């Protein structure tokens, strides 16, 4: 099998999703520390210059959702998607809701939280409005039993864990609000996800790099900011 290479940086929630999926699928891969870049050479690998990129034997792939589907299509032995079409669509529905209406929203606030910038009150207000709708949607949709689509963790669980984790940090910091507590019923699921070996490996590297990242950016956020649901151990 061609060696898979994951290009990315351990602070990135999207990089961490792909890395966790590779570990859960027990696929051998090389993790190559790489920052996002607008250099023409990097945009050959990632059209928007974003991380993660997965280098495959067939070429480079960017966009996390595409990478997750490629991994499950190309290496189905351990699948992270439900087999049944409806359940599979429900998995994608959850991923889309979190990607568009949670992660892409809180990302608009990263500058003022993690990067030493300032967020405009209008941005904080518009993000809050969409988060209200997303929280209601996820309260309706997420009922772990014990994982989001049944007995085994899948794409939706991994996607939700890393993206709700970063959203939790932002919403606590900006709004003094816990998106995870508002959704409700996620404590057991969160603890199960947090204790998985894949999560421990990925989060260990996250914590090693996060404090440095915040210091380098003069961020208002502190790496040891307490999160009730996220163990910073
Ligand atoms: N839609 C992309 C988002 C990836 C993303 O936003 N990556 C961030 C790091 S978490 C990045 O590369 N940021 C640099 C930039 O936007 O130029 C995906 O699904 O992979």
TrEMBL record:
Residues 84-214 form the GST C-terminal domain. Residues 2-79 form the GST N-terminal domain. It is an enzyme of class 2 (transferase). Pfam families: GST_C_2, GST_N_3. Keywords: Transferase. GO terms for molecular function: glutathione transferase activity. One of its GO terms (cellular component) is cytoplasm. This is Glutathione S-transferase. The lineage of its organism: Bacteria, Pseudomonadati, Pseudomonadota, Alphaproteobacteria, Sphingomonadales.
């Amino acid at each position: 099998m061609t060696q898979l290479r994951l290009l990315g940086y351990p602070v990135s929630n999207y990089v961490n999703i792909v890395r966790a999926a590779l570990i859960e699928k027990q696929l051998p891969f090389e993790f190559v520390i790489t920052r996002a870049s607008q250099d023409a050479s990097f945009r050959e690998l990632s059209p928007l210059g974003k991380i993660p990129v997965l280098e495959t034997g067939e070429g480079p792939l960017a966009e996390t959702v595409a990478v997750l589907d490629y991994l499950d299509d190309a290496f189905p032995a351990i699948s992270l998607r439900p087999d049944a079409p409806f359940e599979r669509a429900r998995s994608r529905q959850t991923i889309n809701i979190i990607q568009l209406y949670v992660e892409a929203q809180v990302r608009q606030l990263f500058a003022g939280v993690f990067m030493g910038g300032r967020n405009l009150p209008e941005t904080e207000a518009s993000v809050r409005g969409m988060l209200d709708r997303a929280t209601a949607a996820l309260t309706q949709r997420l009922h772990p039993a014990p994982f989001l689509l049944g007995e085994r963790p899948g794409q939706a669980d991994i996607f939700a864990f890393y993206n709700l984790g970063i959203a939790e940090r932002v919403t606590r910091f900006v709004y003094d609000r816990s998106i995870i507590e508002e959704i409700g019923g996620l404590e057991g699921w969160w603890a199960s996800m947090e204790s998985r070996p894949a999560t421990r490996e990925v989060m260990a590297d996250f914590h090693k790099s996060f404090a440095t990242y915040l210091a380098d950016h003069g961020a208002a956020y502190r790496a040891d900011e307490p999160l009730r649901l996220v163990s910073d151990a």
